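Re: the 220-residue chain
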Amino acid sequence: MTRKLCILVALAYFFLPFATFSKKKEKPALPEVLLKAQTAVVIIEPDAGEPMNDPTANRNAREEVEKALLSWGRFRLVQETSSADIVIAVKKGTEKAATPTIDGGPIDNRPVTVQTTDSQIRIGAKQGQPADGSYNPDSSPSNGRPQQGVEVGPSEDSFLVYMGGDTFKSHSASLWSYRAKNALRPPNVNAVQEFRKAITDAEQAAAKKQQQQSPQPKTP
């Protein structure tokens, strides 16, 4: 083997990893239930505590997500997990590994709220935490009374999508998830924008696949 050929072989082995990793990875297909869903409910993640320095952080994040979904207009928002096609669980990040929190209270309680867009009006008056359809404040160690705690876990904003209905459980595997810094921050609410993009991409891919599989008309 000549010296020139040896150099070419060495260069090929050197650039091979870069060629392999530069190949665009295909995104996993979204479950069909997400593409067919018509109703949604937004809840606070059941295990979320309220940061002591911002006790309304999760409730505000939930409301911003609801407003963004209303503006999108794809889903009709409902109040119960049992009547929703999908359940969206949100939690505001604190940008810290460990955060002092207020735990044990019914953090998902809400007063009557009215949210409007150009095409929809939504009135919410749900009380209690519809985390899995069986929430009971009296079953918690604090009997529904707030107590101080410490939350350890991901510090980014969290947006998880589950299958709704009577079988919904918060510990089930999520259908789609997005975690990022300030993902729930208005006015953009990037988590909703990413969810919207994922659904749009999936629908376009499905339409393209169906078109490719459809029999082509014969040319006379």
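Residues 13-24, 125-142 have pLDDT under 50 and may be disordered.
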